[in-house]
Amino acid sequence: MADAAISVEGAHKKYGGTQALSGLDLQVTRGTVHGVLGPNGAGKTTLVRVLATLLRPDGGRVEVAGHDVLTQAREVRLRIGLLGQHAALDEELSGRQNLEMFGRLHHLGARHARVRAGELLARFGLEDTGRKAVRHYSGGMRRRLDLAASLVTDPEVLFLDEPTTGLDPRGRTEVWTAVRSLVGGGTTVLLTTQYLEEADQLADRISVVDRGRVVADGTPDELKAATGGDRIDVVLRDAGQLGAAVALLPVPAEGVLVDPDRRLLSAPVTDRMAALSGVVRALEAAGIEAEDVALRRPTLDEVFLDLTGGDERTTEAA
Amino acid sequence: MTTYETYEPYEPHKVAGGPGTRALSDCWTMTRRELAHWARQPVRVLVGLVFPVMLLLMFAYLVGGGREVSGNHVHHLVPGVLVLTMAFGLEGTMLAVTQDLDKGVIDRFRSMPMANGAVLVGRSAADMLQSALGLAVLLAVGYAIGWRAHGGVAALLGAVGLLLLFRFAMLWIGIQLGMVAGRPELVQAVQILVWPVGFLSNAFAAPESMPDWLGTAVQWNPMSQTATAIRDLLGNPGGEPGHLWAAVAWPLALIAVFFPLAVRRFARLSG
Fold first, then answer.
1. What is the pLDDT of residues A276-304, one digit of tens each?
2. B36 — contact with chain A (CB < 8 Å)?
3. Are A286 and A248 spatial neighbours (Cβ–Cβ below 8 Å)?
4. CATH class of A230-296
5. Band of pLDDT at residue A316, cut at 50, 70 and 90
6. What interface predicted TM-score (ipTM) does this complex get?
7. Domain A4-219, CATH class in plain words
8. Over the stretch B233-262, which tens digit does the pLDDT of each residue have?
9. Residues from A in contact with B at Cβ < 8 Å
10. Where do the structural domains in chain A lie, given as residue ranges?
11. How near does any CA of chain A get to the CA of B75, in Å?
């Protein structure tokens, strides 16, 4: 694919005794933000490490910015930026020392490396950090510097591996704002996350990864639409009547989620209006009091559980 | 208002210099990184220099006990402490390597278009510099407590050369072990083991005074070869001619084994 910034076909990687990638396929269009969503251990980090030339795939074809990660690693490295799960910074040095060092290692030359470091510090609001060593930075500052470090060369492709894990809400918003501002510049971003909200907020397309393979692929809306369509939520006055209510519903029993704490049951529906009036009538006839009945689109959470964790779902419904 | 010089956009195909120039520049950048760490933590550097001096003084005045310090003992002792200090450098290197690998910054280095071995070159340059400083301090303190070299300047420089060669071998063993261990906690095990191995040499004791099997092991210890050779060069007791070749060959052999192992391991490292 000519306009693919990342092209992965049948990638395999055995890592730490498990098959971390088993035939993963992925195409990411230039200039887009692509979310890779999956539970812990799904293979997200392995994928990023393979793409960033840190791990060699056992099989398959992996190309980044038009270059093969195995045979043209240097060409790939010239064009990528990496923001890993843990800060990839020299903690003993200051922010400026870090950025200048990375600039020199990208062979910008001493003067350009210095200019670039100043620009990035200003852009990420870190110009007042002076000589302070990075280990004294707050979590949010460290993450911002880490992001700045991965942007030293304005890379064609940027990998963000769970960029907001461990950040407070303010730090998370800061990172989100920074990521959004990048996309305008034409950078392709591959973002892994466990947070559905993050993928929903930032990504143009999402690949849901489970057990080393992509199990679903599409825009956030497409994914929501693909799984069950609309849902009806019913909140009862008395949690003890939930079981009886489930039996009465004029919808198939599989796919019904029950949450006793919130006295809530939630079911997928096909015909919205028929389901709404049917549910209301059935409850009334049985004398079960409802506090709230509402139709809604599925959340990405439900899509995610549906695609990756049949097990979690049964536990929740039980 | 702050103004910034305009940054010229980075173009991968326009990177300055050939592969050789770039590799040299990378090695220098990584060495500068280590020196910047020194500047941040002068106390740590100082402690590294003071520790062998403390060993020397302890052996001279405490363990040496009743023996006359200015006599034969100190002439035998100083070369021993010099060799032991070089050997103990191994754990310093190993600790630094594991600490570095433990940090995410290595991932960033490895995802950059830099010379692969530059990180290791920076490490070795810094460690060799620290060891050379350590030798200078030890020689000065040794001189102050009465030790003398009797072989002339060329022989003294030769002895320093042998010591640094031995240190260089320890450096690559330390780098390899550090990568194999992977975690700083495992360094403790090596830190404990370095002591018996260090003392299983003729640095302080005479192999003739030991049981046969132990004496043989001690004489085969590369440390002993270096110690005997520098004692000979320095005109100090315990020296024997004819050990020079072994004092050169042993470290070279160790380097020939561990240098490629370490470079290969680093290139294939996956965290």
1. 888 888 888 888 888 888 888 777 677 77
2. yes
3. yes
4. alpha beta
5. very low
6. 0.83
7. alpha beta
8. 999 988 888 889 999 999 999 999 999 999
9. 15, 49, 52-55, 74-75, 77-80, 82, 84, 86-93, 97, 101-102, 104-109, 112, 115-116, 118-119, 122, 127, 133, 149-150, 152-154
10. 4-219, 230-296
11. 41
